[in-house]
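Reviewers of the previous submission asked for a worked example of the structure-prediction workflow described in the proposal, so we include one complete record here. The input consisted solely of the amino acid sequence. No template or homolog information was supplied to the procedure at any stage.
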Amino acid sequence: MIANRASSPKLRFNPVIRRGNFKENLMSRSRTSRFSLCAAAIGALAVAAFAVAPSRAAEDAVIIPAPAADTQASDGIQTAVIAGGCFWGVQGVFQHTSGVVNAVSGYAGGSKATADYTMVSTGSTGHAESVEIKYDPKKISYGKILQIFFSVAHDPTQLNRQGPDSGTQYRSAIFATSDEQKKVAEAYIAQLNAAKVYKKPIVTKVGPLEGFYPAEAYHQDYLTLHPNQPYIAYNDIPKVENLKKIFAQDYIEKPTLVSSAKVTN
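From that input alone, the workflow returned the following C-alpha cells.
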C-alpha cells in the first residue's frame, strides 16, 4: 500500500512481533533437519494469518521527489552501503532493482571482531544491519538508490527501530564510501525535510564507511528463499510490491541473488 506512514492506522495483526527472536531460533534450527518441519508450520501460519488480517506492509511506502543533486557518473562498478532495519527486506528490494549487480546483507558501524549476528543482536556492538549494494552507475545512480531507500525500503523517521524491530542495530543510516556520496546524502535528507515529505523529521545518520562485513550465509537471499515466512510476507514482500508500483522503470522481476551474482568487487 502506498500512503503517508504517519497517518496509517494501527494494524490488527502482526504474525511475528519481533524478528530478532525468530532469527535466533532460526539460526539454531537451521542446523537440524527439524527446520524443514518448522518452515512448513510457519508457512501454514502465514496462510492462516492473511486469511484474517489485511494484506499490507507494517510500513507503507511514500512517494518522494528525486534528489536535486546526484553523484557524477563514472566508469566501473560502484558501492553504496545503507542500513534500514532488518536487512532481509532491504536486500530484497535492491535485488529487484535494475542496475544493481549484487546486494549483500551484512554489518557496518562496528568492528570486524563483533560482526556476528548473535553479538550484533545485543545492540552493543555499534553495528547496524546493513546492505552493501554494488551497482552499475551507467544504469542506476547513487541518488536513485537513495530515493528507493527512503521511499520503499524503510521508514527514515523511526529512531533506532524499524517496524516491529527495535535497537540501535536496526537504525537508519547511510555509510558513505566517498565525500561526494556523503554530500549527496546529506543534501537529499535536507531536501526531503524541507519539502515536509514526512510528518516527522528524518533521523537517518550519514557517516563514512569504515568497514562492511557480510552476514552469515543463512541471511543471504532470505526474502527470495522464504517468501511465505510470516515476517517476510507481512513486512517485506509489500516493499518489493511497492518498488514495482512506484519505480516500475527500475524494477526487475528476477532478483539478482548473492548466490548467483557475477560481480562482487
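The longest strand covers residues 100-108. We consider this example representative of the routine output the project will generate in years two and three.
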